[in-house]
Amino acid sequence: MNHALWSEPYFDEGGGQVIMATYSVPFNKIAGDQRFFQGIVTADVFLSWLKEIVSAVKIFQSGYAFLISQNGVFITIPAKRWSCAKACSAWPRPEGIRV
User: 26 — phi, psi (to 5°)?
Assistant: First the structure.
C-alpha cells in the first residue's frame, strides 16, 4: 500500500451502533533516497454527517438524494431498510457505469 485508502462503509456493532468508514495511510522512514515502510495509521470516521448533508438535498416535491460507495453499498438513503445494503442488484446500471 503506497497511498491512502478509504474502506467500504460498515455498521460498527461494538463501537456505537453507527455507520463508519476507516481511513488508512501508510507511513515511511526516509533514509537518503530510500523509503522504508514503517506502518499504517488508521482513523475510524462516523458517516452520520454525510447523512445530514445528503438529506438536506431536496429534489422537487418527492425526490431525494442518496450516496453509494464505489462497490455499490448505500452510505446514506432516507429509507432505513436500504442503509448499508448492496445497491448493485437493486437497479440495473447503464453499461460502462461502475458502481
Answer: -75, 150
